[in-house]
Every structure is written in C-alpha cells, then in structure tokens.
Design goal:
With about 290 residues, the chain is an alpha/beta fold. Helix content is about 25%, strand content about 15%. The strands form three sheets. A six-stranded parallel beta sheet has the order 3-11-10-7-4-5, with helices on one face. Strands 6-9-8 form a three-stranded antiparallel beta sheet. It binds 6-phosphogluconic acid. 6-phosphogluconic acid binds near residues 191 and 194.
Length: about 290
C-alpha cells in the first residue's frame, strides 16, 4: 500500500534502559595514537571520520545507522532514531534507504527538530525524510512519529511531542528518554537541530524539558520544534554530519574546545553523558583539524 504523508498518526509502545562505553578517536579507518589526537578536553571522547568522497560519506553514514540498529535490536528488541533536517540529510537518507540489514519493522523514527509547518510543506523536515527515506523502506506507519503540525501552537506541539517520546521510549535512568541514535547536522553558524546561537531553547535550565519551541535563527523563518541538549546528550550514539569549508572553523572550535560557550556555539553543547559521539565530515569540513 502506497504510504501517504497525511496518513501518519501517533500510536503507543514502551522500552527498557542500558549502559554504553565511549571509544577513542578514529580517522579514515585508522585509530589515532594519543600523541596524534587534536588538543581535547578529557571530558568527552569522540570519533572523527573523514570521508573520501560524497559516495563514501553517504555509505559511512548508512553503515553507522545499520550497525547501531543491529546492536539495538539484538540488545533491546527495537531501535529508536531521531532524524535531522537540512540539505545534506536528504542525500544521506536516499543512500540509507538502500542499506540492507536494517529491521525497519522494529525501528521507531522521530525528528530531532522540525519546522512548525504541515507535512506537505517543502520546509518540513518530516516531508524531506518521507520523500528521501521513509516512503522507500518497509516501515509501518505506526513507527513514524512526526511533530503534531495540527497543534494550535508550536508550544503545544512541543509538549505533545515530548509526551509521545516519553510514551514510546520510556524514561531513562535520569528520567530523560534515551534514544539509540540521534543524527544531527550543523549550520555554518554552529547551530544544530534548531538550537540557534543565543536562542531561548539554549537557556532552559530545567533538564526535564526535552522538546521545546524556538524562533528560527535563519531561513526558513518559521517557528521550530527542537530537542533540547539534555535529550540529545542522553542518546547512546550521536552522529554529527557536516560538509564544506564554510563549517570548518566552527567544527575546529567545537572539537578542540568543547567547553566553548554553548550560547555562541550550540554544537559544542553536544557532549553525550554516557554515549558515543561521531563526527562524520568531508575533507573540506575537517580541513582545519590539522589531521
Ligand atoms: C534544520 C536542521 C538543521 C540542519 C543544519 C544543516 O531543520 O534546518 O535540522 O539543524 O541540520 O542547518 O543543514 P545543511 O545540511 O543544509 O547545511
């Protein structure tokens, strides 16, 4: 049966919790000796993968999702993933739709952020993911959780999305749901999801607020619904994908100075508390890392 965007609605399930061990640095499929690693804060360890070509980039991204999906289903019987928006994401998701070995029937798909627009709107991250991935794989409608664009206000949409996430994923040890995998992009201004520099969504001191609304920090100038950093950083695996020299300076700052002021550089706030952080970059985006 041909899936239609408007057919998607919310259903209810539940999940369990589990621990995770962060790896050391890895570039271009070889482990870095400690003496080679960029100057870093010991607080967090991350993998940096630098892809050789756009095809290699999309392949590596698809493999990361497939490997994590396999592990999650083996360990916990299901895989929860939050997708990103942006131009790079659509290219990656087309390749992901061709990846074998992902049990889509046991996969639950959410959105790390979205624009508060209806599903047919070209600005909709859900629409992007639907066209480039979800309409191309055998995933049940009930496993796809877009934001509720019919809500009367963005704030109500954010609250109901938080409730849906808690209902489907349950609450982790720290009363924050734990995603298996969160895919994030990064803007040239260092924003990620819809966490824009100096925006209100970065100044929420209640770690229990997992999804909030935020004003747009750049085009499209529509209200946003976005995961907060506490929810993002509670994930088991976070993959940040970025390409192009225009992003190299912010990437260097975030990787080499993770204690950078998050209000100015939101991406620096991505620091999984018990999880695994992977930067998947092209050579231009990694050009200032001195690798
Ligand atoms: C959004 C995204 C945003 C995106 C970055 C990177 O809703 O716009 O979620 O965070 O990932 O802006 O976008 P590009 O891949 O287009 O550079």
């Amino acid at each position: 049966m041909q899936k239609k965007k408007a057919d998607l609605s919310t259903t209810l399930r539940s999940a369990q919790d589990d621990a995770f061990t962060p790896p050391v640095l890895w570039i271009n499929a070889r482990w870095l000796k400690p003496s080679e690693s960029p100057k870093r804060n010991k607080k967090m360890s991350a993998k940096i993968i630098v892809a050789d070509s756009p095809e290699d980039f999309a392949l590596q991204c698809a493999r990361l999702v497939a490997d994590n999906a396999k592990e999650a289903v083996e360990k916990r019987g299901q895989f929860s993933i939050a997708l990103s928006g942006g131009s790079l994401a659509s290219q990656l998701y087309i390749r992901l739709s061709e990846e074998k070995g992902i049990d889509w029937a046991k996969t639950f798909v959410f959105f790390g952020d979205d624009r508060f627009v209806e599903s047919e709107n070209p600005y909709s991250n859900f629409s992007l993911a639907f066209d480039s991935l979800l309409s191309r794989v055998e995933i049940p409608n009930g496993n796809i959780f877009p934001i509720d664009w019919n809500a009367s206000t963005p704030a109500l949409a954010a609250d109901s999305y938080a409730n849906t996430i808690e209902a489907i994923l349950g609450e982790g040890a720290n009363n924050i749901p734990k995603f298996d995998f969160i895919h994030l992009g990064m803007g040239p201004d260092g924003h990620t999801a819809s966490l824009f520099p100096r925006s209100s969504a970065l100044q929420i001191d209640d770690s229990k607020r997992i999804v909030v609304t935020n004003h747009a920090g750049l085009k499209p100038w529509v209200d946003r619904i976005t995961f907060t950093l506490p929810l993002i950083n509670n994930a088991r695996t976070i993959v940040i994908t970025a390409t192009g020299e225009i992003k190299a300076e912010k990437i260097k700052k975030a990787i080499e100075h993770p204690d950078e002021n998050i209000l100015d550089l939101p991406i620096a706030g991505v620091s999984p508390s018990h999880g695994n952080l992977i930067w998947l970059l092209d050579k231009a985006a990694a050009s200032l890392l001195g690798l």
